[in-house]
Protein 1
Amino acid sequence: MERTLVLVKPDALQRSLIGQILQRFERKGLKLVGMKMMSLSDAILREHYAHLADKPFFAGLAKFMKSTPVIVMCWEGVEVVSTVRLLCGITKSREADTGSIRGDFAMSVSCNVVHASDSVATAEKEIQRFFSKDELFEYDKTEYAHVYSDDEM
Ligand code: IDP
Ligand code: MG
């Protein structure tokens, strides 16, 4: 089954939105297989945002991402990578669809409350970047019988 990485960013912690954001993924029917709180180092941020390293906003982005700890979550489900991107909405929160997390909770491009892996390949790398093997869990989620039909599993 596919897995994806989600970060709840410092603006969400400051605004007391952790519970409401987590609930979006839970109520959709996704399975939580890992979760922790951590402070991000410059080294992990350089790796995580390598595609943005030469952008003028990179230093500000790194400062923002270090301003509080973040919540790191790994979610599992059928086609969960694209599903979670849809749940989060586009980068520029002001234009994100209403009903998406960014669309409902944010106004900013940089302070956009969540990170989500953008492809299956990226998700695999990001999960390894943020979690050790013993921090990820396998268990039966009995609710799945109602969330998916047999042909999807
Ligand atoms: P994504 O988070 O929607 O995948 P990316 O392009 O991968 O978007 O950018 C990573 C993060 O960098 C964004 O979520 C946002 O916090 C920040 N960011 C992206 N573009 C800008 C910008 O133009 N100005 C300021 N911050 C930005
Ligand atoms: Mg991205």
Protein 2
Amino acid sequence: MSDTSLENQHQSIKQQLETFAYQYYVLDEPSVPDAEYDRLMQALIEIERKRPDLKTADSPTQKVGGAVLSKFESVAHEIPMLSLDNGFEDDDLKAFEQRIHDRLNISEPIEFACEPKLDGLAVSIMYENGILIRAATRGDGQTGENITENVKTIANVPLRLLGDNLPQRMEVRGEVFMPKHGFETLNQTQKDNGAKTFANPRNAAAGSLRQLDSKITASRPLRLYAYSVGVVEGGEIEAADTHSKRLMALAKMGLPLCKETDTVVGAQACVDYFNKIGRLRDQLSYDIDGVVFKVNNLALQGRLGFVSKAPRWALAQKFPAQEELTVLNDVEFQVGRTGAITPVARLQPVFVGGVTVSNATLHNQDEINRLGVMIGDTVIIRRAGDVIPQVVSVVLEKRPAEAHHIVFPEHCPVCESHVEKIDSEAVARCTGGLVCSAQRKEAIKHFASRKALDIDGLGDKLVEQMVEQGLILNPADLFHLDLARLCSLDRFGDKSAVNLLRALDTAKNTTLAKFLYSLGIREVGEATARNLALHFLTLENVVAADKESLIEVQDVGEIVANHIYEFMREPANIEIIEKLVASGVKWPKIEIAPADQQPFAGKTIVLTGTLSQMGRSEAKAKLQELGAKVSSSVSAKTDLLVAGEKAGSKLSKATELGIEIWDEQALVDFLKTRD
Ligand code: IVH
């Protein structure tokens, strides 16, 4: 191929890759399949192999990494990288605004730029005439480390800025972080490879960014959000007179920004924004540890200046810590519905993530080995949002001399049956089956739970009491309870008994999906139960299904198929199923509309926000029955967004993309027309 045509081809592929990467990583709007992106990248690498002179600093091939350093050079920051003052209470925000008023001698409410405080690492990225030429860590604020090769591999960092009127020099400052999902996947891969796992996304981001081999960094799911600038010389951005205009200018040049930023006026509005982000926190795809408030007007920022290492014009309002130190006092072993034995850490109570935590799951023996934890150890506990508290790691330096090993029981702590551990599985199980009262209790609790038969008033404590007193052995016995027997229970009056009997009667009207779910077959969750019901249509068909036909069900693999098959071959289980049906448990016949009568056939629908009338899984099931594909992310391919209360970024994105939007009521009304 002639030199000029190779150059033209290089130029064209380069531009396509830049556009695709921008659409995918910055705008969150994928336009081509991953395979197409990979194919173009390979073509570009091939051209550059033939013509190394085309391998410029801004070539997308730099994203795959390659350079291996022996050490990081240091970089002096032209403008120091400062830290932030912290606030913890609403009053700290009010005092912050008051200090600004006093210092500037003004009384008008102040406009603040508000941004989630990203939990990653601060970086400085220098662009000259639009090309990324250097990137550095914050270091001590004066001098950082040169991590150019690594930053270049970060998927959403542009190697070349977009647009005209670019600054001659511009230093972008922002946070490099690892999204939660990427962190989970990375840790799983590390575990599978017998490599060290990371305690949290921040540590994983730090470990990934400080790699001498940039190929390793390239393989890690890092992202950048820009939040300010350092040096700026020339270009449109130089004229910006507020922080938010600077951010907009950065976005125009192709830099990724956090989508939750806003501007508000006055301290009270800051408090409201802080609370709003607090509620959103768990749904965000990345970790944050607070909110940063910055005086928006740059002239005012200039007048306020700095005190020691932090600007007077900014405040980091922190959420309560999600990680704390405490002591592991003991380990108890709990027996679950399927006999799985779970070690539970009994902790010195500690206030973390906004609540007092005294228990945490240790999952299984593998996890205990991985943590290397002993009784008496000081451990780091993490509790994020509604997530169950986790033991993150052990502080070995604090291990006392009397610390001792955790011994897994060989016999079930409840029924004394033998404990079985299959090599390919992480969990140990009690082999007692329905002999084990712990398993029985859990099976009945599951049967009565909201997503199963939803027996109102049958709480966990009541189930435990009924099993302990021999009133019931299995779920089928529930429907043979009578007033006299119920009234024999501790603190259980006539009225409660009548209510429970009525609730049991109501619960008999269910759906096949819920019934299948309620049986508590291993690894058959709500979604699988629904798929089974839709596939087989009747209970008899599910009971009689062979493994081959079970595998045909959506999302059912060999293992799950085996669990279902084995369950249905167990006479004791069939007896319970038959008794339940004989007691009057029933469901409406499933009628599947032919494809051409399914109103949502071929449509992709996204659910977001809180659906208060029906709940998300129910809405999903109903939409699927009507032919819809229910997806979790909004893209150009989305046909309809159903937005419940407190819908956030998905709603804004769908609005931007001009996607049809329904509120919950519209969906409820529509479904009524289908009944
Ligand atoms: S502004 C002078 N904005 O917080 C302004 N920082 O405690 C300095 N951080 O080192 C930074 N999100 O790593 C700013 N939206 C945000 C931020 C943010 C996270 C981090 C940053 C900085 C640390 C200061």
Protein 3
Amino acid sequence: MAKQVSEKILIKNGRLIDPKNKIDQVTDLLIDDFKVVKIANNLNDSAVRTIDATGKIVASGLIDLHVHFREPGDEEEETIASGSAAAVAGGYTSVVCMPNTNPPVDKATAVEYVHRMGRQARKTFIYVMGAITKDRAGQELAEMGLMAEAGAVGFTDDGCGVQDAGAMLRAMKYVSMFDLVISQHCEDHSLAQNGVMNAGYKATVLGLAGMDPLAEEMMLWRDIQLVKKTKARYHAQHISTAGSVKIIREAKEQGLPVTCEVTPHHLLLTEEAVADYDTNFKVNPPLRTQKDVEALRQAVSDGIVDALATDHAPHLQSEKELEFVSAPCGMVGIECALPLYRKALIDTGICDWSQMLAMLTWRPAEIIKAQKGSLAVDDRADIVIIDPDAQWSIDVNQFHSKSRNCPYQGWDVKGKVLYTLVAGEVRFEAKGHDAVSD
Ligand code: DOR
């Protein structure tokens, strides 16, 4: 069989930002055979497709450590195909799928299934995290070794934290044997109670049960004691409180192998948003206070935050229309995450494009040990081309995602993904203001 080759593409005059290689310059890129083959000024090659990137940012494709594509089991909310289409529309060339599907991804065959569906979708590159415990029930360890062999890039019971410290200790010891990461949804159920929003005055006024920040911080603190003992690589998912920032900061100062991620919603929204009982703002961990938002932004500024993730969590409208207490937690956002990060981090002077792209590319890649996230000659041509100043309004009805539970409907934002290339192939191209994928 003839060797497959990708189309030759020349990207001209873009501002190439490659934070890993400390590059920020206007130049041309030639892509051939799935890779970047030349980076130089004034490249010309008549036999290729040319993309004029004048005034645009050209960067390594974005990597999201935290998505819920709901397959297997909840395909009416999202499929790997629809989630993948949403991902490339958001500029993401790689995503990591969470295992809280139905049934959960707690076996090698399930990991293989998700990979296979990702290959079939042929949009973004799909990575998988397997469950830490069988059935995500928090007790007996899942077949982590076999899932690692099948290509799982880490383990998490996301949606739930592992409550049992002994189980977590065993998981950390086990995972150290193959140097993958344990990714934890930090939530101690005995402290979270049945909280549906941040605990405090606001929850009392609204008559809703509150979830104490301590529920997150206590499990994070406990896990870090286990990391001290095991030296396992540990990643704290969607941290949301000032207290969590302090704990992570101290762990890093002690040189522990601890990383963390934050989401757009915890960087932009506070518990005030819940005032109208709009369930699109119901998320776990819950939206916190302005003080927490500021602590998270400061953590980004100080380099404490390793990765910007989305926690893209599709849910049916019929479920989100239930009363606040009964509606499921989560929001979709992978298609508008980039401009939201811009709003939270660049427009506020917290960081510049290069610093922000580092947390969206090579730093998350290192956590899952993917050889990705930079854009030098011979690197795989996973590329996003961004118009940094294009203004647009978020319209959930234009989303490729199957779900519409997005709290940003109607927001005016700045920064638009124009092209997403995966292994040298254009997998998404925005047409005017109507994003259309090929
Ligand atoms: O809000 C959330 N939704 N938080 C999680 O941890 C899980 C996610 C989901 O799966 O819907």
